[in-house]
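Objective 1b. Sequence-to-structure analysis of Tight adherence protein B.
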Amino acid sequence: MNIVRWIIALPAAGATFLLFALIIERFFGRTPMQRRLTTLKHYTRGEKQIREPVLRRLQHMAGQFVERSPALVGLAARAEPKLDAAATGLLPSEWLAIRFLICVLAALVGMLLLPPIFGLLIGVVFGYLLPGMLLTAQINRRRKTFADELPGMLQLILSALRSGFTLQQSVEAAVRDDEGPVAEEFSRALSETRISGEFEDALSRAGERVQSPELTWLVMALRLQRETGGSLAEVMQTTADTMRERAYLRRHVRSLSAEGRMSAYVLICLPIFTSIMLFIVRKDYIMPLFQQFLGIVLLGVAVMMLIIGAVWLRAITKIEV
């Protein structure tokens, strides 16, 4: 019986790993250097067309299957703002299909490794929460990268302004050969301006997507300069200097709180890692926690205390700048 369970569990675990690999590759796949190399390849002569990977084709097929149902399309549309903020390139229908498959596979693996009912519950909860946590992590990572790269982008725009370009020409010249989050948002703002509307309004919407107070300040400065007049280059210089000092202060505070955050990570991960090692090394020692009523109660209390401790430690170590 154990051999049969492992024969079924291994393919299910492999499929779960492939789905996780697909999500992580979409969220955290390319480094800034890889993005620049991709840009250079775009201008290379004789570049062969690369066939779309198998996982991408399966992802598109799953999304097309979801789009056949209006109810599923409406359910998938709820994740559209987060997908837009994360800039993953996933359609809402594809994201819903991936979350469903991960949830099913995690429930299957949980039922095979743990008592069926308890494993089903743990697998469903884990499979439902993990993709959302990865998406939130990607959004936070992109916002942090945006805040770090924005002063440098403003300095490039400022140099183009002093060369005699207009504001939109300066932005276009600065983002032409870059694929970072700042370049993506500024390019989208330029595209929206070409269709209709003001450039400041498009930047304001970009600031709402990435929740960047620095970009909101920039929009306010541009609007004030347009209404009152004055040197646009001087306004941009003052704004860039303020953002650079704010970024320095943010990094300084983060380095000072690094020890507390590392202690929080260790205290949170230690009981989880210990439980996994006991499950692998001495399964009969830890199984009463999943099979007996008292063990299930103790396990629930431990999970609740772990969640409360994680929230408490996060509140202590998180310092807003």
